[in-house]
Amino acid sequence: MSGIYVTVKDTLSPLLKQVARETPEALAGATNTATKAARKYTVPVVKQDANLSESLSNEIGRVQLASPGNLTARVAFKPGRHSILRTGGATFSPGMSWNRGSLSASTHRLSGGGSASLSVPKAFILRGSGHGKFMVASRTGKARKAFKVIYAASAKATMHNEAQRPAQTFIEVAQRELDREVSSVLETAFAGGHVAAGGHGSEGE
Fold first, then answer.
1. CB 198 within 8 A of CB 29
2. Can you name the residues that pair with 102 across neighbouring β-strands?
3. CA dist., res. 134 & res. 125, Å (int)
4. CA atoms of 159 and 33, how far apart (whole Å)
5. For residues 104 and 118, is the Cβ–Cβ distance under 8 A?
6. Which one, of 32, 104, 102, 116, lies nearest residue 68 by Cα?
7. Of the candidates 45, 46, 43, 44, which has an alpha carbon nearest to the alpha carbon of residue 61?
8. How far is it, in rounded angstroms, from Cα 117 to Cα 141?
9. Can you list the residues of the chain whose pLDDT is less than 50?
10. Helix/strand/coil (H/E/C) assignment for every residue in the chain
11. Which of 35, 69, 195, 204 could share a disulfide with 26, CB 3.0–4.6 Å?
12. Tens digit of pLDDT for each residue in 136-169?
């Protein structure tokens, strides 16, 4: 039988099937890379904002990675307390006795706010039970235990407040890196390549 025949070779369906298989893993990799970058850049900002010289390695956990079945990466921030005397520039000036006087210090250096310049004219020093440090406290009433200890800003409290500079840094870096990584890994997937779910990059310390 004579005639004109038009034949189309289907090369798109196999590619789309491969992309469908690769996409969850590619997106998990993008999420992990973005989260690692956000953590890396945020740790020093937390220290600068709190005006701390002490390590935060015990308070900021490593990245809990996303997977193709769960496209959520997570960084855990653990409770931590740092005496205000461990911040840069903190000064306790004794009065009538060595442990009673006034405190001048600063925290939230990058974020600003009420603690950017901290002044407590009537303060006293306690030896912290279980802390192995001297701590500064101020009276809240006349009762024996009516006082509060003055701590520097903790990583956990700072990161749970989006108005603070460390949390803002984490969000900004994560969004920027996620936009870039998603574009890159999907391009790789559509080109027939493979992207690991673990992502790449360093978490820092």
1. yes
2. 93
3. 6
4. 19
5. yes
6. 32
7. 43
8. 23
9. 131-132, 205
10. CCCCCCCCCCCHHHHHHHHHHHHHHHHHHHHHHHHHHHHHHHHHHHHHHHCECCCCCCCEEEEECCECCECCCEEEECCCCCEHHHECCCEEEEEEECCEEEEEECCCCCCCCCCCCEEEEEEEEEECCCCCCEEEEEECCCCCCCEEECECCCHHHHHCCCCCHHHHHHHHHHHHHHHHHHHHHHHHHHCCCCCCCCCCCCCCC
11. 195
12. 889 888 888 888 888 888 888 888 888 899 999 9
Specify the pTM: 0.79
Listed in sequence order, the residues at least 6 apart from 93 whose beta carbon sits closer than 8 Å to its beta carbon are 101, 102, 103, 104
Tokens, residue 175: 């969004």
- Output the six-digit token pair for 171: 């969000």
Q: How many residues does the chain have?
A: 205
Q: In the prediction, which pLDDT does 56 show? A: 79
